[in-house]
Amino acid sequence: MERRHPLVYTIAAAGLIFFLWMHLGLESSPAHHTLGFVGLIAALWISEIIPLGATSLLPLIYLPLAGIVTPGALAESYFNSIIFLFLGGFLLAAAMEKWNLHRRIALWILMITGRQVVAGFMIASALLSMWISNTATAMMMLPIAAAVLSRLDGDSWNRPVYLGVAYGCSIGGIATLIGTPPNLALARIYKQSFGAESFPGFTEWMLMAFPLALILLAVVYIILHKVLYRTDSAQSLNRGQWSVQLDELGPMTAEEKSAGILFATTALLWIFRSPIELDSFRLPGWIDALSGFEHAKQINDGVIALAMATLGFLLPAPSHKGKRILEAADLDRIPWSILLLFGAGFALASAFESSGLSQQAGSLLQSIRPDNVFLLLLLINFSMNMMTEFTSNTATAQIILPVIAALAKESGLPALGLMAGVTFSVSMAFMMPVATPPNAIVFGSGKLKIADMVKSGLILNPITALITSAYCYCLFF
Predict the structure, then answer these.
(1) Torsion-angle region of residue 100: left (phi > 0), alpha (psi -120 to 50) or beta?
(2) Which of 162, 129, 128, 130 is nearest to 148 (CA)?
(3) What proportion of the chain, given as a percentage, has pLDDT over 90?
(4) CA nearest 48: which of 18, 85, 9?
(5) Containing domain of residue 33, as a range?
(6) Which of 20, 203, 440, 472 fits a disulfide with 421 by CB distance 3.0 to 4.6 angstroms?
(7) 72 shares a domain with 36
(8) 21 with 160, same domain?
(9) What is the pTM of this model?
């Protein structure tokens, strides 16, 4: 049996004590009960004294018994279009990984960047994580990084390359709506609070977030490689060495082509589903061509993702007789605990609203908020940036976003500006291995020390919080 640090039990016990205190206090109310339960869930998520997936099932048990959320509303929290979108994305990523397409794409990108090794890994990681999960991207980039670093003399490249992979994954994830779970959490919670009409679609999100991702990627690269961990540029790899690894993969197989076409088609359907409007220019979306069909407007990104993933189960794998691009065994590779974590977060968001806790929290934040709006943005974003160093960024977003939504309602400030800033900030955790899955994955390589991450994070965290706050302030306020 795995030995756990005493702090794990301390955190879990503190969560349980807080839960009981909120229920046994003299001023016990639905809002107090919800707050106590959120504290317990947060403690269990942080300590992981029981598996994340198991903890994420607790709202299904407690919230109906406490009379806070009905079973029907909870069912919708765990089974909705955002969950469908993420599930479809996981399946498409599984198809790419299964047939080794991800490795070929990464090497193509690195060949384009040539001698700029760190920049190449950061760009490759960021571009891939825009479309598939940060975790999957980090896991697929790690062996490529290890293979490349084995060709270089000395260990000076280890820190900038491995950290570049982790940070590139985190930054790239914010650029698309499906890039990282907090983005989808924002989509769901914002729509719950303010309606679906005012939330940006897939293309609008890219137009909003992609420029910020580019800025952050450039700044982090400069600080990481040119300031903190400088290397001998004479030892940079050239395109020929990337080409060697690409040649080792052999010619592109029929299965890789099928997985690539499947993924590219999905991305195009996502991007061009809704009309694209830039000033006076308007490009109609393909959904407009289906206006004659009664339920065409019901086709959302989640439906597209699941439809294309289902197609993967039908497409044959020509080089492997009797096999298909996706098979039943690939369902076992889906991180179901993450989907349950998502559902639990949506359930907690519903509990915040129905219990009145969101309104109370918003009023409290309203009473203590500074008069300077930019200072408020910076305070919130930096707090989230540091908080997620020790907690799941998805769980942090799920817990905090309903509170920020309530603050926006109370103050009249642009809700999307406040909530997007929080969402971006919880993905910008660079200091601790436990902060994000990419951090944990590269730390697991054994080539980094915690001190390396802390050194980077102490500089990058406040800088990225400042950039994110300034960007959101200029865009929304």
Answers:
(1) left
(2) 162
(3) 27
(4) 9
(5) 1-50
(6) 472
(7) no
(8) no
(9) 0.68
